[in-house]
Amino acid sequence: MSRRFAEGTSVSVGKSRGDIDTLLRRWGVDGIQWTDQFGEGQMTLQFIWKRDDQGYLARFVVVLPTEDELQEEAKHATSGRVLATKLEKLREASGRREMRALLLYLKGCFEAIEDGIVDAERVLLPFLVGKDGKTFAEHALPQLPKLLSGTAQALLPGPS
């Protein structure tokens, strides 16, 4: 089985956030917001950027193990008791790999944008937030079968 990107990284979540902030500032965003929701097992990144006098809000949600999941993983195999030191190590490591992966993803997106491979709106479209607070992906994904059942379906490979 292959290793996942940044598995076992010692780079802290704070360092990765700083690297992401620096990347976003270089790309020209107007604002950055991080929200931690440990009970729900997620961290959220939102940023605002402008293009042609239009402001866009993008949101990325990084899913993490919940406290209950960490406690379950920290249980002793035979006694079933939560091992405090193991739990603390799991809490400390939670989010490290995911934040490195988010940084890698954003770097790749911005490189593709800067090289003219794709424009920013196309890359960020699933993550753009509407007035109702939902992302485009949150609106589109439940409708995906319906959206693809029309003419778009003809573009997909099928039986000959």
Layout of helices and strands, plus pairs?
Layout: H1 13-27, E1 31-37, E2 42-51, E3 54-63, H2 67-73, H3 84-93, H4 96-114, H5 120-124, H6 136-140, H7 144-148
Antiparallel strand pairs: 1-2, 2-3
Calculate the mean pLDDT score and round it.
Answer: 89
Category from helices, strands and their pairing: alpha+beta
Helix proportion: 40-55%
- Helix count from the secondary structure assignment: 7
Instruction: Summarize the helix and strand pattern as letters.
Output: HEEEHHHHHH
The total beta strand count reads 3
Task: List unreliable stretches of 5+ residues.
Answer: none
Determine the strand fraction and express it as a percent band. Answer: 15-25%
**Largest sheet data:** 3 strands, antiparallel
Q: How many discrete structural domains? A: 1
Strand order of the largest sheet: 1-2-3
Explain this structure.
There is one protein chain. This protein has one domain. The chain contains seven helices and three strands, in the order H-E-E-E-H-H-H-H-H-H. It has a three-stranded antiparallel beta sheet, covered by helices on one side. Strand 2 and strand 3 form a beta hairpin.
What's the gist of this structure?
The chain is of the alpha+beta class.
List keywords for this structure.
3 strands, 3-stranded antiparallel β-sheet, 7 helices, single chain, 160 residues, 41% helix, alpha+beta
